[in-house]
Design goal:
The complex is a heterodimer of chains A (275) and B (313). Chain A is an all-alpha fold and 275 residues long. Chain A folds into two domains: 50 residues, no CATH class; 171 residues, Orthogonal Bundle (MetI-like fold). Chain A has 13 helices and no strands. In chain A, helix 4 runs antiparallel to helix 5. In chain B, a hairpin with an 8-residue loop joins strand 1 and strand 2. In chain B, helix 4 crosses helix 9, helix 12 packs antiparallel against helix 15 and helix 14 packs antiparallel against helix 15. A two-stranded antiparallel ribbon of chain B has the order 1-2. Chain B has one domain: MetI-like (MetI-like fold, Orthogonal Bundle). Classes of the chains: A mainly alpha (275), B mainly alpha (313). At the A-B interface, helix 1, helix 2, helix 4, helix 5 and helix 6 of A face helix 2, helix 4, helix 5, helix 6 and helix 7 of B.
Chain lengths: 275, 313
């Protein structure tokens, strides 16, 4: 398994570069398309254009309420992340460390949520949220997405809690720390990689979520970015350049966060996979 | 909401004389606190997941259009109708094509992971980061981007094929190519994800095992079969289970790219449920289809987890 010969290495790198191109070209092509006029694109889908047309971005931004959608997406994602952390962490701690008598059945009931498709909750939830006055409110979407996120968060946190050195918790108790104190001052810092993983994965799920906002956020003032973009697609099917600009605008926030935090993204996923 | 109330029940005290387990927390005050810690999560989960499922199960026994106040109870009629519903089975078949497609992407992900885990590869982090980019994108963005790529007039794929002298199909408007085109888009977002999961497993395998095997004269293939595959068994099981769970639930790309068409060539179960409950207002029937979908996912997951438990013994 040491250094193989040159031709093996060259073909390996060639393969990797080709896959890298496949991974990026669709996005790059949309980006390039957004910097041209629709007419030019229909004449020749490949060509570049200089100077680039920036007007498409202004049209997309102004006509599509992008700032409102961005704000809504951010509010729903941040709200969901905060609520998931606030409820799933104590629950996972209690179910794993405190060894309650009902730990096991309660944990498996939560785990069931990993297998439940949103389709088996969405129909009655629609009527339920309407009765609760939560339809077309960002709070309603936050609560539903939190409920859908809790199972995985508890699953992930439990795996890390089980690896925690129990002696530390015992020592804190002997020193007179209460359970809540132990939870906050001892367990929380020790668990911070797993908590970070929950934050990242929940951000990705919530930011990209389509079904929940499709049903529960149906007015323009509360729509999130993905759902706004679907309406945008309907309105600009013929104006491909503006559509491409809108698509690029919608892709950028998550791409920027991914480039900054890609190590945490990957660690979060692998932590979920190995435990 | 019955689930949350049952959680409030205080713990039963351990019978006197039982030796306190070091790992089991003392019952009483702390036990009650434990349930208080679980309560918020349990309440949200019960109100917004468990209770709606019970409701869906109930609705599946009714004939309801979602509007009229009266729901007529029809017992198993919806399920009986579903058993003879060709459209449902055709949608399910499309889901299974999707599952098979995702296995191709997983195999591809395994190849990439194996390549990237070779000790002499440089820029590993760079390639891993790039391959995972499509997986971070919202499926709405992905679907719209690929819609543009597949377009016959301005799409880059048609233009490429034309330049190569090949016929440029309207990929998404042709009955025969629409499903493969959508699945290809799904797999574009998936191989990087599979690779990241498998790479995590590969990197946790003890290198000295390979050295020992090489000393014993085992070749690359035997090393792969006897060291690599067992070493990433957990990740493989996870990916296989996830591919079933997620592809059976799949909806976003179909909704964005084809609306189930042309004809019903790309209709999947989730899309069928959506159009039953929210387009044609057959809420009871849609609920029955949702219940069946859930049961299929549960059954497949349980079978896989059992098989995995057995293989670990």
């Amino acid at each position: 398994m040491n250094r193989p010969n040159a031709s093996t290495r060259i073909s390996a790198y060639t393969a990797l570069v080709v896959v890298a191109i496949i991974s990026l070209v669709p996005l790059v092509w949309v980006l390039l398309q957004s910097l041209r006029t629709s007419n030019a694109t229909s004449l020749d889908p490949f060509a570049f254009e200089w100077p680039p047309v920036v007007r498409n971005y202004a049209t997309a931004w102004n006509q599509a309420h992008f700032s409102q959608y961005l704000l809504n997406s951010a509010v729903v994602a941040v709200g969901t992340i905060a609520l998931v952390l606030a409820v799933a962490f104590p629950a996972a701690y209690a179910l794993t460390v405190l060894k309650l008598r009902l730990s096991s059945p309660v944990f498996y009931t939560f785990l069931l949520g990993l297998m439940i498709p949103v389709w088996s909750v969405v129909i009655p939830l629609f009527f339920q949220l309407r009765n609760m006055g939560l339809i077309n409110t960002r709070l309603g979407a936050v609560l539903v997405e939190t409920a859908l996120g809790i199972p995985f968060a508890i699953f992930l946190l439990r795996a890390s809690l089980r690896d925690l050195p129990y002696e530390l918790i015992e020592a804190a108790r002997i020193d007179g720390a209460g359970d809540l104190r132990t939870l906050w001052s001892i367990v929380r810092p020790l668990l911070s990689p797993a908590l970070q993983a929950v934050v990242i994965l929940q951000f990705m799920t919530s930011w990209n979520e389509l079904v929940v906002p499709l049903f529960f956020l149906q007015t323009d003032d509360v729509r999130t970015l993905p759902i706004g973009l679907t309406f945008f697609q309907g309105r600009f099917t013929t104006d491909t350049s503006v559509l491409a600009a809108g698509t690029t605008l919608a892709a950028l926030p998550v791409l920027i966060i991914y480039v900054i935090l890609n190590r945490q993204f990957i660690q979060g996923l692998t932590a979920g996979a190995t435990k | 909401m019955s689930a949350s109330t049952s959680l409030e029940r205080p713990t039963v005290l351990a019978p006197p004389g039982t030796a306190p387990d070091r790992r089991r927390h003392r019952d009483g005050r702390a036990g009650v606190l434990g349930y208080w810690l679980v309560l918020p999560a349990a309440t949200i989960y019960a109100v917004f997941t468990l209770w709606p499922i019970v409701q869906t199960a109930y609705l599946s026994f009714t004939d309801w259009n979602g509007l009229s106040p009266a729901k007529s109870f029809v017992a198993f009629d919806n399920y009986r109708e579903l058993a003879g519903d060709r459209r449902f089975f055709s949608a399910l078949l499309h889901n299974l094509e999707w599952v098979a497609g995702s296995w191709l992407a997983q195999g591809f992900g395994l190849l990439l992971a194996a390549l990237l885990s070779a000790s002499w590869i440089r820029a590993r982090t760079f390639f891993r980061t790039v391959f995972f980019v499509p997986a971070t994108m919202s499926l709405v963005v992905v679907g719209i981007a690929w819609n543009q790529i597949y377009r016959p007039d301005t799409g880059v794929l048609a233009a490429t094929l034309e330049a190569a002298g090949l016929p440029s199909a309207g990929w998404l408007s042709d009955q025969h190519t629409a499903m493969p085109a959508v699945i290809a888009t799904a797999n574009w977002t998936y191989y990087g994800f599979a690779m990241v999961i498998l790479l995590g497993g590969l990197q946790s395998i003890d290198r000295s095992l390979y050295e020992a095997a090489a000393v014993d004269g085992a070749g690359a293939v035997r090393q792969f079969v006897h060291i690599t595959l067992p070493g990433i068994r957990n990740q493989i099981t996870l990916l296989v289970v996830l591919s079933f769970i997620n592809t059976l639930k799949t909806f976003d790309l179909v909704y964005i790219m084809t609306n189930g068409g042309p004809g019903r060539a790309t209709e999947v179960v989730a899309y069928y449920i959506y159009s039953l409950a929210f387009v044609t207002h057959q809420v009871g029937y849609g609920a029955a289809a949702a219940v069946v979908l859930t049961l299929i996912i549960l059954a497949i997951t349980i079978v896989f987890l059992r098989l995995r438990e057995r293989s670990e013994r």
